[in-house]
Write a structure and sequence with these properties.
Growth Hormone, Chain: A; mainly alpha; transmembrane helix
Length: 527
């Protein structure tokens, strides 16, 4: 007679509660980067929003997240990362409630900015909290699970967004954050040990302000150019302000005794190459999905959940390759899978230029799979490779710079590709239609209101306008995919050109130094 297996002791289960609390927050903040994509057409119809507003709904969160990561990380070193994580959870939950209740696009965009503040506070705290909560083999297990959750958020985001939008409405994609945040908050208070901040010295306020102004003004100018044109005074002033703010940031960092970013790191060509690759990866691999989703729903009339499932092959391919990256690329220099992966991302997106006026959703599948393979190759080792190129005392700073680059790349990708898409649709409609208001029709198409354009014309003209709608979207997407694809290929060439093969980390050159920092797991910000 066999005896039943004994239940694991309560202490063995309780020790993983901190990991659950951290994973819940990480999953929530990363899902919210992509969960809105499939809900955009419904948002546009419900809030009567413009194409520019749709861009800001997606972009504001990523932009604030990118602008604040470095400075919030420095605050965590001073105030304590548990305290900062709790602050992030509360802010994120309240902002999610405001998003779900938003009566108009302006309120929704402002609430998305507040979500970015909470997300930055959580994201910068996760690795420090895991390091403090676990040691030895448990630490490796914890980081492995946390990394899988981070990567899984990319696959779940579009599908979860589609499911909630289909079954309820777009507001549910924000309300779902409330119980998740409440559970993470309870477990953090009860089971994560409080620690005191250890960093000293004056916080680099000048660097924080100038970098925030730079990134905000740059993205604002790029997004507004889609509606106002490149010659608009608003766009020119905004882009000029971004240049001045960047120069001020450089001066502030050179003068600061405790800078957010040690500009001396930029003399390291390997670090520069990998940071640039992180920025360009998100722009190439993920930014175009916003406009792909609008096409799938607005033109092909797929439901939100169907549109989410169409985009899944990218995330699933990335998940499979990333899960086997150690076995596949363990003996390769890190720049090999990163460089090849970026080229594959570019090649996959270039395959998507096969979309034409008569295409169905299946036309994008080969490109999504190929680019997903590239994401799975490039992302698992990108952070550790970047950290291995800097001195041990700059590892935290370098991690913040790479994560900032990834989020800023996504924000800039949305802005640039959105402007390209809107201008191309406008040109196509103006050249190929006899509508009374081609500019208004083009704006409605870009904003996901293709059915409204069709409903506004007499029945005998709908067949021609239907053809126009499909042709305009195909033209816009062709240009978007071309630019994103070339960006991916260029990013791969940058890695091969700048990153030195087998360059040891500075501490690896000295036998007495331990290479622990180089193995720090990547703080994934995948979509």
């Amino acid at each position: 007679m066999t005896t039943p297996a004994a239940a694991p002791p309560e202490g063995a289960l309780r020790k993983w509660i901190p990991l659950i609390a951290i994973c819940l927050g990480t999953f929530m903040l990363l899902v919210d980067v992509s969960i809105v994509n499939v809900a955009l057409p419904q948002m546009a119809a419900d809030l009567h929003s413009s194409f520019t507003s749709l861009q800001w709904v997606v972009d504001m969160y990523a932009l604030v997240l990118a602008a604040l990561l470095m400075v919030v990380g420095a605050l965590g070193d001073r105030l304590g990362h548990r305290r900062l994580y709790l602050f992030g959870l509360v802010v994120f939950a309240l902002a999610s409630l405001a998003c779900g209740l938003a009566p108009n696009a302006g309120t929704l965009i402002a609430a998305r900015a507040a979500q970015g503040i909470g997300g930055a506070a959580m994201l910068t705290s996760t690795t420090s909290l895991l390091n403090a909560a676990y040691q030895g083999r448990d630490r490796g297990t914890a980081f492995g699970i946390w990394g899988a959750v981070s990567g899984g958020a990319a696959a779940v985001g579009p599908v979860l967004g589609g499911l909630l939008t289909d079954q309820f409405n777009w507001r549910a994609i924000f309300f779902v954050n409330l119980p998740i945040a409440a559970a993470a908050l309870y477990m953090t208070v009860r089971h994560l040990r409080a620690e005191q901040g250890r960093a000293t010295g004056r916080l680099d306020y000048a660097g924080a302000v100038t970098f925030t102004v730079f990134s905000g003004a740059l993205v604002y100018g790029l997004i507004e150019s889609a509606d106002k044109g490149w010659g608009s005074s608003t766009v020119l002033v905004s882009l000029g302000l971004s240049v001045l703010a960047l120069l001020a940031f450089v001066v502030a960092e050179l003068r600061s005794s405790n800078p957010l970013l040690d500009l001396g790191l930029l003399r390291n060509r390997s670090f520069v190459g990998l940071t640039a690759a992180a920025l360009l990866l998100n722009a190439a691999a993920f930014a175009h999905l916003t406009y792909t989703s609008i096409w799938l729903q607005s033109v092909l009339a797929l439901s939100p959940i169907q549109a989410g499932l169409v985009c899944c092959p990218l995330a699933l391919a990335a998940f499979v390759v990333a899960g086997n990256s150690g076995r596949l690329f363990g003996k390769s220099a890190p720049q090999v899978p990163i460089g090849i992966g970026l080229v594959l991302i570019g090649a996959g997106v270039l395959l998507m230029t096969l979309v034409s006026a008569g295409s169905s959703w299946t036309a994008v599948l080969p490109g999504l799979v190929v680019s997903g393979l590239g994401v799975g190759m490039a992302t698992p080792v990108m952070m550790s490779a970047a950290l291995s190129t800097v001195p041990r005392e700059r590892v935290g700073m370098a991690s913040g710079a790479v994560n900032t680059g990834r989020q800023l790349g996504y924000a800039l990708g949305i802005a640039v590709l959105g402007t390209v898409f809107a201008n191309r649709v406008q040109d196509y409609v103006s050249a190929n239609s006899h509508l009374a208001d081609p500019h208004g029709a083009a704006s409605a198409l870009s904003g996901g209101r293709a059915q409204a354009v069709l409903a506004a014309v007499p029945a005998d003209q709908r067949a021609a306008v239907h053809q126009l709608v499909h042709g305009a979207f195909a033209a816009g997407l062709d240009r978007v995919y071309l630019i994103a694809g070339v960006t991916g290929v260029v990013a791969g060439l940058i890695v091969f050109g700048l990153v030195r093969r087998g360059a040891p980390a500075p501490w690896e050159q000295k036998p007495a130094a331990a290479p622990a920092a180089a193995a720090e797991p990547e703080a994934s910000t995948a979509h």
